[in-house]
Design a protein that fits this description.
The protein has 249 residues and is of the alpha/beta class. The protein has one domain: Vaccinia Virus protein VP39 (Rossmann fold, 3-Layer(aba) Sandwich). It contains 9 helices and 7 strands, in the order αααβαβαββαβααβαβ. It has helices at residues 2-10, 13-23, 30-48, 69-74, 86-89, 129-139, 170-181, 198-206, 232-238; strands at 57-61, 78-83, 99-101, 114-120, 140-151, 211-218, 241-248. The chain has a 7-stranded mixed beta sheet, with helices on both faces. The longest helix has 19 residues, at 30-48.
């Protein structure tokens, strides 16, 4: 896919270092982290999407308070987000950002109504991630693009704010975090954080009857390291985040 090749050239070491540095502020300064992620996501979509974005309707599944809205508006897209948690929709105190409250497993949109449907760092917070991904394909127009990007459980960021303790088991890591901080983690294993692998995402994408896979790559790594996604065990640990791009049939 030409778009994926263009993004590989954009995926420099400098970009990777900046994103990984901003990731440290996900909990302490979410505006910094999600602001940087929003700009990068808009750039990713613009580069991997074969059609022009000017006037395109973009649905962001699990969009939270709408951090991505301005970034997509800046490139001419009509941005809509869907979020199941009302508290998350208002968490950042942003102006209303064309947000709809609804479940990712039952998206409240008509079949074939979106030009682009994306989800960024949501799959790992969903008990039924591939049911949500199926819904994303359903609401996308024929010829439209579906982009699913998520954090890999066995990577160094799989435990989110629990750090590397998730390698000792998700439930144990949550107990250790609670004991240390006096409250449970925001991303509580088994409730709002789940062990999702690169293999499961690639299996879902390649088995999707209603869409063709255009690209799959590790989002936060520079393009010259994308080869590691072909190595089954290595990709789970070192890829950190997987992006799969599909075109609806």
């Amino acid at each position: 896919m030409k778009g994926a090749k263009r993004f590989a050239r954009y995926a420099t070491m400098r970009r990777s270092a900046g994103l990984l540095n901003d990731f440290r502020f996900e909990q302490s300064d979410p505006s910094r982290f999600y602001g940087a992620l929003a700009l990068d996501t808009a750039e990713l979509v613009a580069r991997v999407t074969p059609a022009a974005l000017d006037g395109a309707v973009v649905l962001d599944v699990g969009g939270g308070p709408g951090y991505f809205a301005d970034a997509f508006s800046a490139i001419g897209a009509h941005y809509i987000s869907v979020e199941p948690d009302a508290s998350e929709m208002h968490a950042a105190g942003l102006d209303q950002r064309a947000s709809v409250r609804g479940s990712g497993q039952q998206l409240p949109f008509a079949t074939g109504s979106m030009d682009i449907c994306l989800s960024s760092n949501v799959v790992e917070h969903t008990r039924y991630p591939w049911q949500m991904a199926d819904e994303m394909v359903r609401v996308t127009k024929p010829g439209g693009v579906v982009i699913v990007s998520y954090t890999l459980w066995w990577g160094p960021f799989g435990g989110h704010e629990m750090g590397l303790t998730h390698y000792f088991g998700g439930a144990r890591a949550a107990r250790w975090y609670t004991r240390r901080h006096g409250h449970p983690p925001k991303n509580l294993y088994g409730t709002s954080l789940f062990a999702v692998t690169a293999t499961s995402g690639l299996r879902w994408a390649n088995g999707q009857p209603d869409a063709d896979v255009l690209a799959a790559f590790p989002r936060y790594l520079p393009g010259w390291l994308w080869w590691m996604l072909r190595i089954p065990v290595l990709r789970e640990i070192a890829a950190t985040n997987l992006v799969v791009v599909l075109r609806k049939k």
